[in-house]
Design brief:
By secondary structure, the chain is mainly α. The chain has 13 helices and no strands. The longest helix has 37 residues. The chain starts with a helix and ends in a 10-residue tail after the last helix.
């Protein structure tokens, strides 16, 4: 009985704690969620043609992730003997969409979504080790781009505001920053010394706050992560850098468009900083997908940078509708389709959609 009880505790204890944390988190952010939901009828005042623009931008952001996954899996597939089945676009898209939806509705957030995404890819014929390596590399490169964004936005903040009433300049900024990110990404992936210098510089800064971190330890950690990413995308580094930049910049462009749809006015660089903080909040697995925390945080940050509270609330709702809520039913449909296809044709057939 003791052994059985211990097994139950080990199996369900962690899940119970996770559910409890999620419940407390949802209770804390319930007022902001209710406030956001209360503003849904006001979306009727937005010009309808903005909605397909947002969907296209978010679709491009998702497609960039599929491209990254295909690059990582294709590289590993080419190095295996015997060569495993190359995952097709349909398999990769289905796995990512289903995992993304799971991460938005289940406790654990991105970790839970990653497990489901990996499961679908493995059932499609990909080796477990290859999938784990590929998803880790994707997570590292996309997180690296996110951490790079506030650094790149500093010059724009220092230069000063753009011409009046030109939030749309943010769309041009997203293109320029994507080009810069690709250049820096290629430098990091092809020039290890560049990574060492950056790591030592960051280490000196972090050491001022956390004494246990040194320039050498920070550089070593950064080099190790660089090696994992470089190994996953070897021979296709520029494509990987482009896809990672596109994933973040299309998503940022969707936020800019959501605010432009309301004729809001703000400095694009400040909107970018608000975007980065919101994405960081989404990574904290207190509530699935940062539900409530991201919405309240992004709304507050937009107000701080000069957008009216009303426009900030509706703009956040419009952006989250395209980036958070719409992918959930799409992911559920993708998972349902995969289950039906698996039941009808067997596990191996789900990989037969390549090219």
């Amino acid at each position: 009985m003791r052994i059985a009880g211990g097994g139950l505790v080990r199996r369900w204890g962690g899940r119970a704690v996770g559910l409890a944390i999620t419940g407390v988190g949802l209770y804390i952010v319930a007022p902001s969620i209710l406030s956001l939901f209360g503003a849904w009828p006001r979306l009727a005042d937005v010009n309808p043609w903005w909605f397909p623009v947002l969907v296209v931008l978010e679709g491009c952001s998702f497609a960039a992730l599929w491209w990254l996954a295909r690059l990582a899996l294709a590289h590993h597939a080419g190095s295996e003997e015997p060569r495993p089945v190359l995952a097709g676009w349909g398999t990769i898209a289905t796995a990512q969409l289903a995992g993304n939806a799971a991460g938005k509705v289940l406790p654990g957030g991105a970790a839970t979504g990653g497990v489901l995404q990996a499961r679908l890819l493995i059932r499609a014929g990909q080796p477990a080790a290859v999938v784990a390596s590929a998803l880790t590399a994707i997570g590292l490169i996309t997180t690296g781009v996110l951490l790079l964004l506030p650094v790149l936005s500093v010059p724009a903040v220092l230069i000063g505001p753009p011409p009046a009433r030109q939030l749309e300049v943010g769309l041009l900024i997203s293109l320029i920053m994507a080009i810069v990110i690709v250049g820096l990404g290629l430098a990091a992936l092809t020039w290890p010394r560049f990574v060492v210098l950056v790591g030592r510089g960051a280490g000196h800064v972090i050491h001022l706050v956390k004494r246990s971190v040194t320039a050498d330890s920070c550089a070593a950690l950064l080099v190790a992560q660089r090696e994992r990413v470089a190994g996953a995308f070897e021979g296709r580094w520029w494509e990987a850098a482009l896809a990672a930049a596109a994933n973040r910049m299309f998503d940022y462009a969707a936020l800019v468009v959501a605010l432009a749809a309301l004729n809001a006015h703000a400095r694009p660089a400040m909107v970018l900083l608000a975007y980065v903080v919101a994405q960081a909040l989404a990574m904290i697995p207190i509530t699935p997908g940062g539900l409530g925390f991201v919405d309240a945080g992004l709304t507050a940050l937009l107000v701080l940078i000069g957008i009216s509270p009303d426009a900030a609330l509706i703009g956040t709702l419009l952006y989250r509708l395209a980036s958070f809520w719409l992918p959930i039913p799409v992911g559920l449909l993708a998972w349902t389709g995969w289950r039906i296809h698996l039941h009808l044709t067997g596990p191996s057939a789900s990989a037969g959609d390549e090219e």
